[in-house]
Amino acid sequence: MYQEEMEVCETTEVHEDLVRLVNETMPAENELYDLAELFKVFGDSTRIRILFVLFEAEVCVCDLAEALNMTQSAISHQLRILKQSKLVKSRREGKSIFYSLADDHVKTIIAQGMEHVGED
């Protein structure tokens, strides 16, 4: 199997001004951890499918289960993760609980991801 060789500098020369700039602008470690955890949530195709349904409408678990051909239990489990990550919100109406995207940021993240994967 052919393995592409990694390109590296031919000499060791540290560019102090660039390193300083990076160190000054690097977010705190806990913020980077939280960001990585957020992106892990997007790493599941079922959760992505749920988010796509919620792009179109506010729906209850029954609607999601029907639309995605899954059990309500499986949908509820994924919704719990999405809610803990502040990607979806819920509201009660009578005996039903309706879910929607937490805010426009969620739509933007997914839209930019779709644009990226669609590039040639």
Fold and architecture overview:
The structure is a single chain. This protein is mainly alpha-helical. It has a single domain (29-117), classed as Winged helix-like DNA-binding domain superfamily/Winged helix DNA-binding domain (Arc Repressor Mutant, subunit A). 58% of the residues lie in helices and 12% in strands. The protein has a 3-stranded antiparallel β-sheet. Strand 2 (88-93) and strand 3 form a beta hairpin. Helix 4 packs across helix 5.
| Spatial shape | elongated
Q: Class, according to the CATH hierarchy?
A: Mainly Alpha
Strand content: 5-15%
Which fold name is given in CATH as the topology?
A: Arc Repressor Mutant, subunit A
Mean pLDDT: 92
Largest sheet: 3 strands, antiparallel
What is the H/E order?
HHHEHHEEH
Number of DSSP helical runs: 6
List strands and helices in order, with pairings.
Layout: H1 16-25, H2 29-41, H3 45-56, E1 59-60, H4 61-68, H5 72-84, E2 88-93, E3 96-101, H6 104-117
Antiparallel strand pairs: 1-3, 2-3
